[in-house]
Amino acid sequence: MTHWIVNVDKGTCIGSAVCVGTAPGRFALDDRQRSGPVATEIAPDEAVRDAAASCPVEAISLLDADTGAPVDLD
Amino acid sequence: MTMQDSPIKFPPAVDERHGQPVAEFRALAGNRPVVWVELPDGSTAWLVIGYEEVRQVLVDQRFSRAAAVAPGRSLQGTEMFAAGSINGIDPPEHTRLRRLVASAFTARRVEALRPRVTSIVDRLIDALLDGRQPADLVSGFSLPLPVQVICEMLGVPADDMEQFHTWSDTVMGDWERDSDIIMPALLDMYGYFARLIELKRAQPADDLMTALIAARDQSDRLTEEELTMLGCTLLLGGHETTANQISLSLLVLLDHPAELARLRADPGLIPGAVEELMRYVPLGFGLPPARMATQDVRLGDLTISAGEVVLPLFAAANRDPSAFSDSDRFDVRRAPANHLAFGAGVHHCLGAQLARLELQEAFLGLICRVPGLRLAGPANELRFKPGMAIRSLCELPVSWDEQ
């Protein structure tokens, strides 16, 4: 069973919190209002894929833990 | 902290010139971040004015947009339009629609439009400088800039822009007073988009409406009605807000000459100044977009019960002294990274990056190319359109130094 590695580039994040609302429990804002994953390695989750695809600054990356390849966001 | 004995009437009868009297709410509320208010229909709600609390309401999915605008609820103003749009639904339905348009509005895609936006700004300023003084900046600059940009993105022909503005102006107007003209305007706009969609089906182009039509026809990711409403919403959302943000921001800059001089001396400060203008200028008017608690939720030191309505007041959050030091002072060097002018959470303004780009290029043009730009009359004689959902200037007469 493959896993995804979730990463948020905090330098790119603008704190829109679209991801926090789109995938509840998967992302949280820090005290500077920048997002990060609650858990970095997760089972595939469509809500997390939606959050990555909806990020206004494309700050969220999803990688396949086995291959290291980017997860298709479509 | 004591509970309020009775609700404060909201929204208050105030002058569009000043926006929501945020400091007054704060004082009336005894500095509570959440205030009990009575709305015009007699119902009560919680007005949220603290920064952290506004952010929580926007991000926490237990506060539902869909429940707040559900059939049977007494809706006012543009909330009636929002109820049928992407602004009136929650995940997962919201996510499906948002994903279809999100990629067109990312920072990267928007940045690619910068040369085009710069050239529209330059052409508008050329026409302004070639024309007579005083000139109306609303009709000659603030409005045509965002209208042209969003029309080009969507693929709406330039010849139809004027008609669109008329519809938008009507739809964003006073729903209490003018509901008999607003519904026909909405239907006309809806009908226009339905015809435009047929046209683009027959003649696909490199634009957002064509891309959305493909999402419907090739992969059935949205209904025909959703497609048509999305067109209306993107067009409406894309211009009245930006146009007035440009005009009202210029008023603030002209009212703070030392800050304006800083930007003239160092245009590199403009992107940060745009963020400060977004924070400082209250754009919304009347009732903010409501949310309804779907279960009991702790908010500040209150418990909001399931079924109660909360109204997040963005303008108040942006002036909260606990989030922004010396919060009522306008300072272009503050460059705030966390203001809430675009909202937050799943309904965070889709066009935020585009609005930023347009504002940056607008002020780069106005500040660097129009020498001695100033109001052509007293600021207190400026007229606002009555009853609008956002503060909307009728005209902004300006003059400048002839070269």
Description:
The complex is a heterodimer of chains A (74) and B (403). Chain A is 19% helix and 24% strand. Chain A is built from 2 helices and 5 strands, in the order βαβββαβ. In chain A, strand 2 and strand 3 form a beta hairpin. Chain B is α+β, with helices and mostly antiparallel strands and 403 residues long. Chain B is 48% helix and 8% strand. Chain B has 18 helices and 11 strands. In chain B, the strands form 3 sheets. In chain B, strands 1-2-3-9-6-4 form a 6-stranded mixed β-sheet. In chain B, strands 5-11-10 form a 3-stranded antiparallel β-sheet. In chain B, helix 7 runs antiparallel to helix 9, helix 7 runs parallel beside helix 18 and helix 16 packs across helix 18. The longest helix of chain B is centred in the middle third of the chain and has 28 residues. In chain B, 44% of the residues are buried. Chains A and B meet through helix 1 and helix 2 of A and helix 2 and helix 5 of B.
| Multimeric status of the protein | heterodimer
Radius of gyration of chain B: 21 Å
Summarize the biggest pleated sheet of chain A.
3 strands, antiparallel
| Average predicted confidence as pLDDT of chain A | 96
Helix and strand layout, with pairings?
The complex is a heterodimer of chains A (74) and B (403).
Chain A: E1 4-8, H1 18-22, E2 27-29, E3 35-37, E4 41-42, H2 46-54, E5 60-64
Antiparallel strand pairs in A: 1-4, 1-5, 2-3
Chain B: E1 8-9, H1 22-28, E2 34-38, E3 44-48, H2 51-59, E4 63-64, H3 65-68, H4 79-82, H5 93-102, H6 107-111, H7 114-130, E5 135-136, H8 137-142, H9 144-154, H10 161-171, H11 175-202, H12 208-217, H13 224-237, H14 240-255, H15 257-265, H16 270-280, E6 291-293, E7 297-299, E8 302-304, E9 309-312, H17 314-317, H18 352-369, E10 374-375, E11 397-399
Parallel strand pairs in B: 1-2, 3-9
Antiparallel strand pairs in B: 2-3, 4-6, 5-11, 6-9, 7-8, 10-11
Helix pairs in contact in B: 7-9, 7-18, 10-11, 11-13, 14-18, 16-18
